[in-house]
Write a structure and sequence with these properties.
The chain is an alpha+beta fold and about 270 residues long. It contains 4 helices and 17 strands. The radius of gyration is 17 Å and the shape is globular. Bound molecules: 2-amino-4-trifluoromethylsulfanyl-butyric acid and cobalt (II) ion (2 copies). One cobalt (II) ion (CO) binds next to loops.
């Protein structure tokens, strides 16, 4: 048996990690979060997403990590960069950012075998009012989900908290992509849905590691994947936003592994 198969699992196939494993996740999470802190300065009008990705790949190496996405199912970049109506899995390229573009940058690194996966929103130039509201609601939706994390609650409680908050603001939650277990692997059970009914789904236990990464659209929730087989966009071309943290369930609640070392996770536009 390899390392990644050792240890206890729930009947739903969710791995239960040990107390000592939290330190490994914290280290990996902090590297991914530091990269997202640093990248803020590289987001400006006229910049290409390929240049941002090149910086991320270089910094990942310098910080003692490897990119989890390069080579993952044929993906060739150190980040996903999803601009405006791109929901997720945007491929970095030579297109220049325009004034008012909003973008999600998603970075996953591996440190000592542990995965740190996080994403945030950025803006090039001047942020529009609708985009600002979308970003704010999406950020707060992630934290509504995180606050539902404690032993005894269910994954449905997380989805329900996110969905009711988002729909209460007349925006929609993407159904086609979800959060995921992670730890010694990139994607493992469970699927962490960002919608659902309270009290349903697997019960949270201390030692579970997973991401919460809601995608929120200003328009309808439907998405489609472009011919490149990666880029997911809103079908109605409406703006989409996303934030992602990697977290662990503790005895009394949660630990966020990917908190910003510089306190820059929340979009502040000052
Ligand atoms: N980081 C993404 C996630 O949140 C996965 C990206 S996979 C890639 O799960 F291949 F598109 F990079
Ligand atoms: Co993820
Ligand atoms: Co991610």
């Amino acid at each position: 048996m390899t390392e990644k198969h050792r240890g206890r699992q729930t009947k739903d196939g969710i791995r239960i990690y040990e107390e000592a494993d939290f330190a490994g996740m914290h280290k990996a999470g902090q590297v991914s979060a530091q990269i997202l802190d640093e990248v803020a300065e590289l987001v400006f009008v006229g910049q290409t997403t390929a240049a941002i990705d090149a910086f991320i790949e270089r910094r990942a190496g310098e910080l003692g990590s490897t990119s989890a996405t390069i080579g993952y199912k044929g993906y060739q970049h150190a980040s996903c960069i999803s601009v405006n109506h791109v929901v997720c899995h945007g491929i970095p390229g030579d297109k220049k950012l325009k004034d008012g573009d909003i973008l999600n940058i998603d970075v996953t690194v591996i440190v000592d075998g542990w995965f740190g996966d996080t994403s945030r929103m950025y803006v090039a130039g001047k942020l529009g009012r609708k985009a600002e509201r979308l970003i704010e609601i999406t950020h707060d939706a992630l934290f509504m989900g995180i606050e539902a994390v404690k032993p005894g609650n269910t994954f449905g409680d997380i989805g329900h908290a996110i969905q009711t908050f988002v729909e209460g603001h007349r925006m929609s939650v993407v159904r086609d992509f979800c959060g995921h277990g992670l730890g010694r692997v990139f994607h493992s059970p469970p699927n962490v849905l960002h919608y659902g009914r309270a009290g349903t789904g697997a019960v949270l236990e201390e030692g579970m590691f997973f991401t919460i990464e809601p995608m929120v659209n200003l328009g309808r929730p439907e998405t489609k994947v472009l011919a490149d087989d990666w880029t997911a966009v809103t079908r109605d071309k409406s703006l989409s936003a996303q934030f992602e943290h990697s977290i662990g369930v503790t005895a009394t609640g949660f630990e966020i592994f990917t908190l910003s070392p510089a306190g820059k996770f929340h979009p502040t536009y000052g």
